[in-house]
């Protein structure tokens, strides 16, 4: 069973071509250096209160009020995408009959000597 990766930093940044993307990382300083090296602008990364999955981090970003302009649009789109993927993984089970199993009981006695 695979576990979901968690992150301690999340936010948005504008690529050099003008597109805004949501970013996730575990090291704030290293991520900012990489984004600067790739000519990204409007870097808005925040440290999360605890390690979170992408879905939790996106929900946290919305509670922080990152909902203005392109950054808010990018967060909302990514959250919708993650929600859609999460719903695909859900399995609905419906039982129409219940089978009762008869328990076979045995009595075991033990004697102890002192």
Fold and architecture overview:
The protein has 114 residues and is an alpha+beta fold. Helix content is 35%, strand content 23%. The protein is built from 3 helices and 3 strands. The protein has helices at residues 28-37, 54-63, 69-88; strands at residues 7-14, 20-25, 41-52. A 3-stranded antiparallel beta sheet has the order 2-1-3, sandwiched between helices.
Topology:
Layout: E1 7-14, E2 20-25, H1 28-37, E3 41-52, H2 54-63, H3 69-88
Helix pairs in contact: 2-3
In short:
With 114 residues, this protein is α+β, with helices and mostly antiparallel strands.
- Secondary-structure element order, N to C: EEHEHH
Helix content: 25-40%
Mean pLDDT: 80
What Rg, in angstroms, do the CA atoms define? 25 Å
Please tell me what the overall shape is.
globular
Features:
114 residues; alpha+beta; three-stranded antiparallel sheet; 3 strands; 35% helix
